[in-house]
Design brief:
The protein is mainly β. The protein folds into 2 domains: 14-43; 46-283. Helix content is 15%, strand content 52%. The protein has 3 helices and 17 strands. The protein has helices at 18-43, 101-106, 175-184; strands at residues 11-12, 15-16, 63-71, 74-87, 90-99, 109-118, 124-133, 137-145, 148-156, 163-168, 192-197, 204-218, 221-235, 241-243, 247-255, 262-269, 272-283. The strands form 2 sheets. The chain has a 15-stranded antiparallel sheet that branches. The chain has a two-stranded antiparallel ribbon with strand order 1-2. Strand 1 and strand 2 form a beta hairpin. The longest helix has 26 residues, at 18-43. It starts with 10 loop residues before the first strand and ends with a strand.
């Protein structure tokens, strides 16, 4: 039977033996290297942003559409959108939404939204969102330039002081212009698009992956659809990526036709699964 020498024991005189000490130092070096790689990848996420210009897919025709919103199959709110091209170089979206039914008795909310984007670049120009709750009103106004966005926000029960915030990041999108840009792309199966969007109060890195094609039925009808996966990461003050606290993952279906209408959205959030679904659509007659 072999007896371990004192030098081979795990501890010699209260110290780690050289073999274990060497292995610990190797592990420390490996962990430091992995941490450096992780930090480098986190800092280089900007290099993964999609650089493609607006695609050649035909622009959306002016329309009016109605949607319903809810969770776990329960309808909680309704909304309407009106998409127009008020001039040759601008697209505009106007939307309204409100909680309905017994949900409204618990949580009253009326929303008005308006956004304007460049018809040539599909970049945002400005957006305005007004949220009316039972006891307060929140107004958010976004003004975009090539270098970033200026946000003006008022939250009050009467007359409140406006708070202004600047976020500098080149070629930002808002919610409306991001949809226009993604809609314009080829959207081939398994392709991936990454854009930075500033919907209202924070900037997010949105990663959209084309999962494939499938049939889907919504209240407005049955469609051949493009299925998309959506992931969001919040962008911090120092441009570090952070997990979204409330949004986990989303699935989007758009019609696989000349319109590419938004048909349905399902999102995994902190309260479960929420959805938005197209109820009806009507195209405006040419003037």
């Amino acid at each position: 039977m072999r007896t371990s020498k004192p030098y081979e024991a795990g501890i010699i005189g209260g110290r780690l033996r050289p073999g274990i000490l060497i292995r610990l130092r190797i592990l420390q070096t490996v962990f430091a290297f992995l941490a450096l790689c992780s930090s480098s990848l986190a800092q280089n996420w900007e290099a993964t942003i999609s650089k493609d210009p607006p695609g050649s897919f035909p622009e959306l025709r002016p329309l009016r559409a109605a949607y319903r919103f809810g969770w776990s199959g329960l309808t909680a709110a309704s909304g309407e959108v009106h998409f127009t091209k008020p001039s040759e170089n601008k697209f505009q979206l106007e939307g309204t939404g409100r909680t309905i039914g017994f949900v409204r008795a618990l949580w009253k909310l009326d929303v008005n939204y308006q956004a304007v984007a460049s018809a040539g670049t599909l970049r945002p120009i400005e957006a305005q969102q007004i949220e009316n709750y039972r006891s307060k009103k929140i107004s958010t106004h976004l003004t975009f330039t090539n270098n970033g966005v200026t946000r003006t926000r008022t939250e009050d029960k009467g007359t409140g002081e406006a708070k202004t915030r600047q976020f500098n990041f080149p070629d930002l999108f808002d919610l409306f212009s991001a949809m226009l840009y993604l809609r314009s792309q080829p959207l081939k199966d398994h392709s991936v698009y990454r854009v930075v969007a500033y919907p209202a109060t924070n900037a997010y890195l949105a990663t959209v992956r084309v999962l494939g094609r499938e049939k889907i039925s919504v209240h407005a009808g049955s469609y051949s659809a493009i299925k998309l996966d959506l992931q969001l990461k919040r962008i911090g003050k120092h441009r570090e990526l952070e997990p979204h606290r409330k949004f986990h993952r989303g699935t989007i279906w758009v019609s696989d036709d000349a319109e590419r209408l938004l048909l349905r959205i399902e999102a995994q959030v902190f309260v479960g699964t929420v959805f938005a679904e197209l109820q009806s659509v009507r195209f405006d007659k040419p003037k």
